Amino acid sequence: KTLRVAVIPGDGIGQEVMPEGIACLKAAAKRYDIDIQLDEKFQDWATCDRYVKEGSMLPENWKETLQQYDSIYFGAVGDPARVPDHISLWGSLIQFRREFDQYISLRPCRLMPGIKCPLADKKVGDIDFWVVRENTEGEYSSIGGKMFPGTDREFVVQDTIMTRHGVDRVLKYAFDLAQKRPRKKLTSATKSNGISISMPYWDERVKEMHQQYPDVEVDKYHIDILTAFFVLRPEAFDVVVGSNLFGDILSDLGPACTGSIGVAPSGNINPEGRFPSLFEPVHGSAPDIAGKGIANPIGAIWAGQMMLMHYGYKEAADKMMEAIEVALEKGGPNVITPDLGGKGDCAGLGGHIAKLIETL
Ligand code: NAI
Ligand code: MG
C-alpha cells in the first residue's frame, strides 16, 4: 500500500529543512523498497506569504484535500514581523490538530551523541524516554468566561474537561507504547493533592487502564516534583503521560534537558488513522537564521523517521536513526551546523545523513 504524504514546509527555515527531510525519506524508501508518495504541491500552504496575499493561511478546501493523505509532513509556521503568531498558528497547525483529531502529541526525549547535555554528568543512553501529551481536551477548554468586567465583582473562570473517552484513549496509547519498550514503565503526571476533582479522576483512569497491562510498571508523581525529577534524574523515565497542560510543560522540558532545539521532533497523532497524523520538528520558523542556510535539519529528518516508525516501517526508521546518530557523532565540524558548534550548513548535514542512510 502506498504511504501518501502531504509535505507542507511552511515558513522560514521550514522551507530549508524540509528538502533535507525529504531527501532522507527518499533514501530510506529506496533502500527498503517502501512505497511512499511525497506530494510537494503544498509549497505555499500554511505560509505567511499566502496570508499577506490572500488573507488566509490555507485554501478553503484544505480539509477535504489533506484528508486524502495518510500523513502530513510539516515544517514550521510563523513570520511574526508580518503576521501575528496567533493568526498564523491558529490558521494552520492548530486547525490540523483539532480538525484531524490528533489527540496524541508524542515527543522523544533522548540524549544524542555529539550534543552537550545541559544537565551535568549525563552520557548517551542515560536519557531516553517519551512524553505522551493529551492534545484535545483537559485544561485547554474554551468553556468559561469573564464576569462583571471592570467592577470589584470581576472574575474569570475556565473549566477543565476530562471525558472518559478522552482520558482513556491517551492512556491506552501510552500503555501500548510502554508495553513495546524494554523497560515497560509508565509514569503518570498528576496533581491530585491540589486539583481535587479532575486529577483524582485522571489517577482513577490510570489505575483502571493498568489492569489491562499487568506487565507494565506504573508510577505517578505530582507535576511539581515531576518537573524537578526530569532535571535531577531523567534516567528514571521510560514513557511519561500527562494531561494537555502537564504534557505541554513536560514535552518542552524533556527535549530541553537533552540539548539542541534543532534536533527534536514531534508527532501529532490520530492513532486510528481516521485522519492524517502530522509529523514536524519541534522548532519554529527561526526568523533570526532563516535564509542563511545554516538551520539544523535533524529535527525535520527525525520527524520523518518518526513518521516511518508510526506507519510500521521499523527497519527503515531504525536505519534513519542510526544515520542521525552517526552524523552527530562522527560528522565533524565541517558537517555539523553552527547551533551545535560546527561550521557546516543545512544542505551539507542533510546530504551527509541521506548518504549514510544509503550506505551504512
Ligand atoms: P524557534 O524555534 O523558531 O527559534 C528559537 C531559537 O532556536 C532561535 O534562536 C532559532 O534560531 C533557534 N533554532 C530553531 N530551530 C533551529 C534549527 N533547526 N537549527 C538551528 N537553530 C534553530 O522559536 P521562536 O523564535 O520562539 O519562534 C519563531 C516563529 O516560529 C514564531 O512565529 C513562532 O510562532 C513560530 N513557531 C512555530 C512552531 C511550529 O510551527 N510548530 C513552533 C514554535 C514556534
Ligand atoms: Mg509548548
List the helices and strands and how they pair.
Blueprint lengths: L2 E8 L3 H19 L3 E4 L8 H7 L7 H6 L3 E6 L8 H6 L2 H7 L4 E7 L17 E7 L9 E4 L7 E4 L5 H17 L4 E6 L7 H13 L6 E6 H10 L6 E4 L1 H13 L8 E5 L7 E5 L16 H13 L3 H17 L15 H14 L1
Parallel strand pairs: 1-2, 1-3, 3-12, 5-10, 8-9, 8-10
Antiparallel strand pairs: 4-5, 4-11, 6-7, 11-12
Helix pairs in contact: 1-10, 1-11, 1-12, 6-7, 8-9, 10-11, 11-12
Can you walk me through this structure?
This protein is α/β, with parallel strands linked by helices and 360 residues long. The chain has 2 domains: 199 residues, Isopropylmalate Dehydrogenase (3-Layer(aba) Sandwich), CATH 3.40.718.10; 130 residues, Isopropylmalate Dehydrogenase (3-Layer(aba) Sandwich). It contains 12 helices and 12 strands. The chain has a 10-stranded mixed β-sheet, sandwiched between helices. Strands 6-7 form a two-stranded antiparallel sheet. Strand 1, helix 1 and strand 2 form a beta-alpha-beta unit. Helix 1 crosses helix 11, helix 6 crosses helix 7 and helix 8 packs parallel to helix 9. The longest helix is centred in the first third of the chain and has 19 residues. The chain starts with a strand and ends with a helix. The structure holds 1,4-dihydronicotinamide adenine dinucleotide and magnesium ion. The site of 1,4-dihydronicotinamide adenine dinucleotide has 23 residues, from helix 4. Its EC number is 1.1.1.83. It is an enzyme of class 1 (oxidoreductase). It catalyses: (R)-malate + NAD(+) = pyruvate + CO2 + NADH. Belongs to the isocitrate and isopropylmalate dehydrogenases family. This is D-malate dehydrogenase (decarboxylating).
